[in-house]
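The data are quoted verbatim for completeness:
=====
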Amino acid sequence: MGRGQGEGALFKDARGFWTATVELPPKNGKRRRKVIRSKDKKVARDKLVKMQKDLSENGDMPTSSMRLEVWLRHWFRDIQAPRIAPKTIAVYRTMLEQYIIPSIGKYRLDKLSAEHVRQMHRYVTDQGLSPTTASQAHRVLSIALRDAVREGHATRNIATMVDAPKRARTELVTLNADHGIQIMQTVSQDRLGSRIAAALLTGARQGELIGLEIDRVSDVLDLSWQLQRFSWSHGCEKLESGKPACEYSQGARCPQRHLEAPIDREYRHLEGGLWLSRPKSSAGWRIVPLVDPLKSILERRIEASLSEPNPHGLVWTADPQLNRKTGQLELDGGPLDPSRDNKAWHAALKRAGVPDARLHDARHATVDLLYEAEVREELIMEIVGHSTVAMSRKYRSRGNKDQLRAAMVKMSQQFLTSNPTADSPHLGID
């Protein structure tokens, strides 16, 4: 008859080592034991007692342990990457390769302690990085250890026993309705002024607008795709060190490069590292009624785009770039790069003389305009696609389209009445 769970044995093996064994819970009907060896009998006996204590407290323990680095690389490649978005993959890769693995990757999973987690925190902040970055690294480590416990490679998630660093407090600038009107007047003659007008008049996110295709503009804006910059991943074999086998350090230059992405998400490649991606659920596909002045503004922009190169059929394309062969500035019809789009936004705010705010904060101005127009709150959240509503949207019907259109009209009228110098609904914006 075999030993029962938690029972142990101490004996000297044929090689002269004192061997301690503890019976573990069986898995898939197979017997499991934890075995340790030592040349010293007292050391072996003490380890036996500790193993039995740990088993009693945790209910199980791994039969063998690997280094944290080995687990993290396997976990990231085979478990985590297939279930998260490409931009999140890039963040996780940075956390692992730059902070977690260099600081504590050499330790065994079963030897990790709370002090090791704090060691990782210090490694991040000692490089002059903020507690926010350390908190991000902590979260990634915690998720990796959670999965290690689930798969039987560890008995506990030590990261949950240590407080994550508090995130740095940031003071965000918010834009109000008056700011929005001032910005609109400033960009009225810009080639891509309509891009900024769309941000202020719809509350749409950056990716939703710069990824907007002409065939998704009618009496509504179909915001069912987003343009984003993703990082390519190596497709070549990895060496034992974890480095790629090809001669390039960047995944974008690997001959076998590929995009790591969940199989249940839709992506369309445009060029370089720019992709169109679907929101992760249909709840994120927004339809925004198109009314004046934005309707007239977009009609003028689309008309202008017909005389420009536009291989991807986008409403907004990149500004002229220098052709090195001709020495001339030329349009190539490429997508608007998110970073260039962001710089254009800040330049517009500076010219308008309004507080410098994030591009994402254009949504604040939109919400403020909607409130000033006395639009009902549930319609405001429907129009701007507020995240808390998106989570519950799958459980209820969408807002009445006639009500949404009426709300957009009420809000947009503020631009027409507050700009007495404009002689037409399009405010002069192309």
